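Lecture 7 notes: from sequence to structure.

We start with a single chain of 145 residues. Read the sequence below before looking at the structure.
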Amino acid sequence: MRIIATIVLVSVSAMVSCDNKPLLPPETKGSTPFYKMSDSERGFLIKAAGELKLGMSKGEVITKFGKPTRELDIAANHVVYFYSQIWHRDLVSENGDLFLRLSFDRENTLKKIQSNIPELSNITTAPLADSNEPAAGSYKNGKGQ
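Now the structure, written as tokens:
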């Protein structure tokens, strides 16, 4: 007897209909994000992000922003994320999560600024689709890892 099993893994946040609209949008009626910055925290993030300049050191950025939500080492880059909204505790939602992603080189110099926070579209130095960094991954303790 031969048993054939097919396993399909689907990210709920990535499921789309034929007309490219999400089948299960993150902002469904009555739902709330897993984590959301207060209005004052978000205002601070937006103001501080407006003062970012390529070439700043990682130390300068951390002094200005505080501890990032998540940090990753990817190849020759160090990437930090500051999230203003996380929709699902253990799932990256490209449709609902809002973040500022900063990429530093080996010398800890800021090389790339990316964000999907609408108020920060004017400071982005590279489109998110142009990124070699993976999505932020899973979250722990409500504020990332």
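The helical segments are 39-49, 58-65. Keep this in mind for problem set 3.
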